[in-house]
Write a structure and sequence with these properties.
Elements (H helix, E strand, L loop, with lengths): L1 H16 L3 H13 L1 H6 L2 H27 L13
Length: 82
């Protein structure tokens, strides 16, 4: 499925970057895409999760750009003294 492929790709990005928060953001997108779950959520909860999805897209783009600049290897999180 598209979701399984999305999770595979995200796991690669998470492992390469060390940005494990991206998995949480993708989980928010998954919840919003599930009609049965979406229908039972309050509008406030939907809005909260939707903001997480936007953050996920922005953060994922940033991490991919960082990985590209670094040649696709290594942790993109700031390191003390570097």
């Amino acid at each position: 499925s598209d979701w399984l492929e999305g999770w595979r790709k995200m796991e690669e990005i998470v492992e390469a970057s060390g940005e494990y928060v991206l998995a949480k953001f993708l989980a928010s997108a998954y919840v919003l895409a599930q009609e049965d779950i979406y229908k039972m959520l309050s509008p406030a909860t939907r809005d909260f999760l939707a903001r997480d999805v936007v953050i996920c897209l922005e953060k994922t783009a940033q991490v991919i750009a960082d990985l590209s600049r670094r040649g696709g290897s290594g942790d993109t999180r700031a390191r003390p003294g570097v």
